[in-house]
Design a protein that fits this description.
The chain is of the alpha/beta class. The strands form two sheets. It has a six-stranded parallel sheet, sandwiched between helices. It has a three-stranded antiparallel sheet with strand order 5-4-6, with helices on one face. The radius of gyration is 18 Å and the shape is elongated. The structure holds nicotinamide-adenine-dinucleotide and zinc ion. Nicotinamide-adenine-dinucleotide binds next to helix 2.
């Protein structure tokens, strides 16, 4: 029988510049709901009402209902085995970086250093008017919606729908993607552009793609290897072969 963990281990070990692209699924078992699907946050907070930049401009206080809900979940979350394995692989030079669509800082908390936060971070607050930025306090301790010194309402430094990808993240992800010869696509539905283009760029550059996701996505069709399972099982599974062979 085909052993997908052993095959993934071989693809990663043979590559020269492996990177990971992660999405909400990698954090699902850290207590963070994926937003789509039954019970996901988008059911309670419709994205067009709470998560667009125009909604924030019109009614920033309403959007803070969503930001408090996310902040509260992130405050309580802990990295899981999948985050930990990626951090270990970076230390060993097996992967070079992680491009994440997540805003939860769990990769960094697990020890990953080279993390491109494609959709920004909840760990910072940002003023869309004057550009002021500060570290977020623990969301539990925020009693009132925070204002900037310039008088505007601050927002978490996350990319809302309709907002541009942060310039530095875009440049870093283009650099990593152009070098990549093996891309692990983990826990992303690959529906949110432009992050969803990354696997297609790697494929057209001749790189190999390994998808880890319990469900099929548009990336499945272009993957050299598909692992249909949860990332907190699959990554330690692959790691057991990497440890044996390195
Ligand atoms: P998504 O919710 O669209 O897709 C999640 C994917 O993860 C699905 O394909 C699902 O099958 C898969 N999945 C579910 N459980 C899994 C598991 N245990 N292991 C592996 N895969 C699993 O998420 P997305 O593609 O990241 O896009 C949603 C957007 O919402 C992102 O841009 C992200 O910024 C934001 N978001 C962030 C967080 C976070 O920071 N943790 C959480 C939810 C959403
Ligand atoms: Zn300001």
């Amino acid at each position: 029988m085909k052993n997908v963990y052993r095959e993934a281990s071989a693809l990663i070990s043979e590559s020269e510049y492996a990177i990971a692209l992660t999405g909400a699924g990698i954090s699902a078992e850290s207590g963070l709901d994926t937003f789509r699907g039954g019970g996901g946050l988008w059911e309670k907070f419709k994205p067009e009402e709470y998560a667009t930049i125009s909604a924030f401009r019109q009614n920033p206080k309403k959007c803070w209902d969503l930001f408090f809900a996310i902040g509260d979940i992130i405050d309580k979350a802990k990295p899981n085995l999948a985050h930990e394995v990626l951090a270990e692989w970076e230390t060993k030079g097996l992967i070079k970086s992680v491009i994440t669509q997540n805003v939860d800082s769990l990769h960094q908390r697990a020890g990953s250093k080279n993390v491109v936060e494609f959709h920004g971070s909840h760990a910072k607050l940002h003023c869309i008017s004057c550009g002021y930025e500060m570290d977020s306090p623990s969301f539990e301790t925020i009693k009132e919606i925070p204002n900037c010194k310039c008088g505007n309402v601050l927002k978490p430094a996350v990319v809302l729908f309709g907002e541009a990808i942060p310039h530095t993240a875009l440049i870093a992800s283009e650099r990593e993607t152009s070098r990549c010869d093996c891309l692990l696509v983990i826990g992303t539905s690959a529906q949110v552009a432009p992050a969803s283009f990354i696997p297609f760029t790697v494929m057209s550059n001749g790189g190999k793609i390994i998808e880890i996701n319990p469900e099929a996505t548009p990336v499945s069709n272009i993957s050299s290897l598909v692992i249909r399972g949860s990332s907190s099982e699959a990554l330690p599974g692959i790691n057991s072969y990497i440890r044996r062979e390195n």
